[in-house]
Amino acid sequence: MIGILLVTHGDIGKSLIDCATNILGNKPTCLKLISIKSTNNLLKYQETISKQLEELNNGNGVLVITDIYGATPCNLLQNFIKPGDIEVITGLNLPMLIKALSDRKNNLNSLINESLECAKKNIKKIELK
């Protein structure tokens, strides 16, 4: 199973995991969270990220999802990308997370594409009926 690591600002990731757990009916396995707080030492986060990636990677790779492109969590992840093994996507939203958790197969690139597509499809302006 592809591991999933969320690296987000504050408690955003925890809240999304709680929502996804409620919707899916159980707490997902092979899922970890690192909450970034700007007051903490960034070097410590790099050690934590490295450890979590090792624990999550059972041979099928790890999808790392962060909230904002170019922000601290995203920037911390730049050095951990290993194409085809450890991949990072940004723009975390609940539909993306549920899709990623629900459709983990053995193909990391397919999971990335499907998760990004789901995130995009669920961003809409609701019109009056």
Question: How would you characterize this protein structure?
Answer:
By secondary structure, this protein is of the alpha/beta class. The chain has one domain (3-121): Rossmann fold (3-Layer(aba) Sandwich). 44% of the residues lie in helices and 17% in strands. It has 5 helices and 4 strands, in the order E-H-E-H-E-H-E-H-H. The chain has helices at residues 12-24, 42-56, 72-77, 94-102, 108-121, and strands at residues 3-9, 31-36, 62-66, 86-89. The protein has a 4-stranded parallel sheet with strand order 2-1-3-4, with helices on both faces. Strand 1, helix 1 (12-24) and strand 2 (31-36) form a beta-alpha-beta unit. The longest helix is centred in the middle third of the chain and has 15 residues, at 42-56. The N and C termini lie far apart (42 Å). The model has no long low-confidence stretch (mean pLDDT 94).
TL;DR of this structure?
By secondary structure, the protein is an alpha/beta fold. The protein contains five helices and four strands.
Which fold name is given in CATH as the topology?
Answer: Rossmann fold
Give the rounded overall mean pLDDT. Answer: 94
Give the strand line-up of the largest sheet: 2-1-3-4
| Low-pLDDT residue intervals, each spanning 5 or more residues | none
Number of domains: 1
SSE inventory with pairings:
Layout: E1 3-9, H1 12-24, E2 31-36, H2 42-56, E3 62-66, H3 72-77, E4 86-89, H4 94-102, H5 108-121
Parallel strand pairs: 1-2, 1-3, 3-4
